[in-house]
Amino acid sequence: NYWTTDRLNRGYHEWPKQRLTDLKAKVARSKWRLGYHVQTRTGLLNDPNGFSYFNHQWHLFYQAFPFGAVHGLKSWTHLVSDDLVNWKNVHKPMIPDRSNDRNGCYSGSAIPVGDRLFLMYTGNIWDKHHHRQAKQDGAWMDKDNDITKLQRPLINQPPLEVTGNFRDPQIIKHGLYYYAILGAQTEGNRGEIVVYRSQSVDHGWNLFKTMDIGNDNLGYMVECPNLVFIHNHPVIIFCPQGIDRKRLNYQNRYPNAYIAGDSMNWNQMKIINPTKIRLMDYGFDFYATRSFNAPDGRALSISWVGMPGVEYATDSEGWSGALTLVRELDLKDGQLIQRPARENRKLFVHDLKAVNGMEIPKQCYIKWVPNIDRLSQMAITAETSHLYFSIDQKGHRLSIHRQNLSGNEEIRQVRINKDVIHSCALYFDNSEFEVYINGGVRTMTGRFFRNGHVLNLNWTDCNSVTVKQLKPININ
Ligand code: FRU
């Protein structure tokens, strides 16, 4: 095996330049590159980090290991955008180069303060007994996108009764205080959301509370918690690993969930009148959502279209991982509504004539209105592979059958009980798809690795089908 512990942890400057050159050449031959979703140039991408607006631009970072499609030593790759659609690599990543983050710059967030952007992230450390330690570190970024790390951690160790699984701080400001919302695992093996507080963003952080989200059964570990506000209602988005499938009916290895509420009691760090816990997405690959309130008040989110511990067909090509489109979040009756951010309309090029059996381009948008008295079906096929969407005869359940180039057919399902499924909008991008059901009341996201080159579209029992060409803009 090429990936020895030594190579997984090798410092960034110790890699020969040739490594990236070789990987780029390999990636260039991939047939699964995306057209309008964020993807890596080489190596692995996982969580989105530091999604923010600063210095008249959108900023987005992601967890990266550029030297191979494995979870090696993590850094933050930095992208900027003027429109949330076209993203440019700044080529000034934040790499692990301190004792405080020596085994990885793990996930975190960013917040503008004065004329700088403050980054808070987890410094991952393996001690000599091979136990995980976590420091919460800080850095300032100036208007030239130069990042200067703080000398000392902001939070040097986990609180009592929390293990070294303590990470992914989200900074959010309210009143006089900054709050850092962190995912944690207790000594008793329970997942928790822990909150620190300070009046200054770069020092003076103290343990404040365990967040009360009305649900104290959050599996064995919470990753990537984010608190956002929609019409003044709090929504906590998080990944409760190992949560009981009777409490949250998820089909993937790990879930990405949310709880909404009426209001936030900041003194108690309590969500008032919380909804039940729900999945954020019902597809195959969706994790580590990062969300924040933009200056215009919108709650924007972006997620990793991937899953920890899952292998992908591109791994052998030296790259893996992609992100969703930026989504705009809304709330209706305590349920999250997700739509592609309106800026994504730019992606639309022109209508294609929708003909059953047609060949579709690798970047396209397909919207269909099912005939809900029948078994309505939509299928994208390529040789022996397919993505097949079917809606049951009562119109309440959508199933996606995915047959990748190798392997068995896998199924994901979503139910809408109080309504029927009246529309599905599919954003297709070569090897990634996002489905928005009933205007974003439910979403299903995943990768699709086909056989062959030609993609065909077939359907039965749809009242209408619209197909539009989308623009490949090649982000990386
Ligand atoms: C989630 C996660 C985070 C961690 C990061 C490391 O996918 O495990 O909890 O900070 O990935 O890359």
TrEMBL record:
<dbReference type="GO" id="GO:0005737">
    <property type="term" value="C:cytoplasm"/>
</dbReference>
<dbReference type="InterPro" id="IPR013148">
    <property type="entry name" value="Glyco_hydro_32_N"/>
</dbReference>
<dbReference type="InterPro" id="IPR013320">
    <property type="entry name" value="ConA-like_dom_sf"/>
</dbReference>
<dbReference type="InterPro" id="IPR051214">
    <property type="entry name" value="GH32_Enzymes"/>
</dbReference>
<dbReference type="Pfam" id="PF00251">
    <property type="entry name" value="Glyco_hydro_32N"/>
</dbReference>
<feature type="domain" description="Glycosyl hydrolase family 32 N-terminal">
    <location>
        <begin position="37"/>
        <end position="340"/>
    </location>
</feature>
<keyword id="KW-0963">Cytoplasm</keyword>
<comment type="similarity">
    <text>Belongs to the glycosyl hydrolase 32 family.</text>
</comment>
<comment type="pathway">
    <text>Glycan biosynthesis; sucrose metabolism.</text>
</comment>
<dbReference type="InterPro" id="IPR023296">
    <property type="entry name" value="Glyco_hydro_beta-prop_sf"/>
</dbReference>
<keyword id="KW-0119">Carbohydrate metabolism</keyword>
<protein>
    <recommendedName>
        <fullName>Sucrose-6-phosphate hydrolase</fullName>
        <ecNumber>3.2.1.26</ecNumber>
    </recommendedName>
</protein>
<dbReference type="InterPro" id="IPR006232">
    <property type="entry name" value="Suc6P_hydrolase"/>
</dbReference>
<dbReference type="GO" id="GO:0005985">
    <property type="term" value="P:sucrose metabolic process"/>
</dbReference>
<keyword id="KW-0326">Glycosidase</keyword>
<dbReference type="InterPro" id="IPR001362">
    <property type="entry name" value="Glyco_hydro_32"/>
</dbReference>
<comment type="function">
    <text>Enables the bacterium to metabolize sucrose as a sole carbon source.</text>
</comment>
<dbReference type="GO" id="GO:0004564">
    <property type="term" value="F:beta-fructofuranosidase activity"/>
</dbReference>
<keyword id="KW-0378">Hydrolase</keyword>
